[in-house]
Amino acid sequence: MKKRDKFMGVVWILLGTIISIWSSTFPFGGLESPGPGYLPFVLGVVLVILGIILLSTAMLQAEGVSRKPVKPLIPDGPGLTRIVLTLGSMALSAAVFESLGFVLTAFFLILFLTRTVRPQKWRVAIFYAFVTALSSFIVFRLLLKTSLPEGIMGL
Amino acid sequence: MDALNYLGMGFSTALTLDNLVFCFLGVLIGTLIGVLPGIGPVATMAILTPFTFAMEPTGAIIMLCGIYYGAQYGGSTTSILVNIPGEVGSIVTCLDGYQMARQGRAGPALGISAIGSFIGGTLSVVGLMLLTPPLARLAINFGPPELFSLILFGLIMVSSLGTGSMVKCLIMATLGMVASTIGMEDVSGYARFTMGSLTIADGLTLVAVVVGMFGITEVLSNVEAMGKQEIYKADIRNIFPSLQDWIAARWAIVRGSLLGFFLGTFPGGGTVITTFLSYWLEKRLSKHPEKFGSGAIEGVAGPETANNASVSGAMVPLLALGLPSHVVMAMLLGAFIIHGIEPGPFFISRHPDLFWGVIASMYIGNVMLLVLNLPLIGMWVRILKIPYPLLFPLIILLCLIGVYSLNNNSWELGIMIIFGIIGYFLRKMEYPPAPFLLAMVLGPMMETSFRQSMLIARGDPAIFIRRPFSAVILTFVVIVLLVSAFLRAKKPNGGAIESDFD
To answer: C-alpha angle A89/A74/A121, rounded to 5°?
Structure first.
């Protein structure tokens, strides 16, 4: 955790600096009537200070006092695959949500995730995806009348 | 007498068919997500908020509140049966509840949780009903400087009481505040940090950020660790605790109710701190502290009562001052604002039907929960058997539909995913998401109250210490900062209460 804290300390200092510099381009106003740049500028400075505290605490901390084992930031093989599959299908669903419509997106998203992340039998996956898509159609379109994209099938 | 008249009016609002259905839906969904470990009340409330648009505000708020207190009932079930807390407020319940289940006493453990929750939940609604109106009357005298100091106090309390490092909590609060400045600024309409994007021109959507940081982050963490789900097989018999159990648990329930309610009213006094303190207190006061951790019923009754009592406690500052004391209340405040209602000193006088209707619905909801959780416990146990590989695609789908339907804008889905990824990495590095969210909700209020204070004082910051109430609050801020810095310096593991229970 110590190494990470040092690294993140630097990240926060940099981010705080960027926020402060960026917000100094907004109308600033004076103390009497603070403008839109005032608060973000102060917050940037606060972030820099907190980053310095985090960095210096991590540097001063004695080696090897960490009690808990540190989890790796990027998971190992199978865990990573599952995360990438989940995130990828989510991003793809977001991209096709409007053109494909929410019912078809729901069907393919569920089918994909149940088949890949922890593979179920095809029968189970197709049945589950179908039931979910159908029930979301009933609940969101028919009962709640939510405005969701109909997409190519007009569902 | 006045309060009783108003309460009668509240019941006439809450007992309409629509509101009864919304109350039931709320507590039902609440229990469900409490039982299911993969999703919590914050994300659920965020996902469901867009669907409440078409509803009357009273029905919407009744349902959203039901989700929160319902989740406190449901959360204990998984803690007791499979040693996995369904909710953060049920973490300590694992200690003795699971041990009781292993000794074949799952029934009484579940029974005393539900009964304790009912007593704590109901008693604390009485407190909420009695304390909120006078506090609101007091708060009418608060001006912008007092509001600014109170918000600052809330954020500092949440950061110092939170889990883990205080610096990290403060960093998250600062980042949340920065996030709240994104978009068009209120006074001049100046676009800050938008980079020309129309999606964020009105600011980051709270729902997208919350669903990302709470819902998606949770899913990603669970998907990574998938494969460790323990399925409960045994039957549950004798739900009703024996006379001996009652005698052992009675004072724990009383203390849990009081502790939960009063701690709940404090900023940062969410269900985690409350339940840990209740457990600690019961262990201290017990004649047999050695039994704690090996199936003491007081260790289940106290915290399970306290977490329900703290729900109503937390609603006091939200309804009287318009200030959320923790992350779930921040989400509820977001829902109020989306429905065009501003909680605060004038809330009760402007919307008496809503205030008293919600209070009455909480009495009704607690009765519904008792029925849902005692005779129907078997149904929830069966739900526990749904394997996570089938559950998480459904959670993702609901996140997508909920966030999209807010503004019918698929870029919001992108924001949700980005915050999900950010939340996932920050969680691994032990940065808690709660201060971020709270600051994001409170940010605009804090900025406005600061600017108004400066206008009143013609640019003299001393106004914050010249006004007596504001000065008192700021003194508390300094004391809290110094005390927690001192405690943490003495205890290198961060000084958070939870560290005693690792």
So the answer is: 40
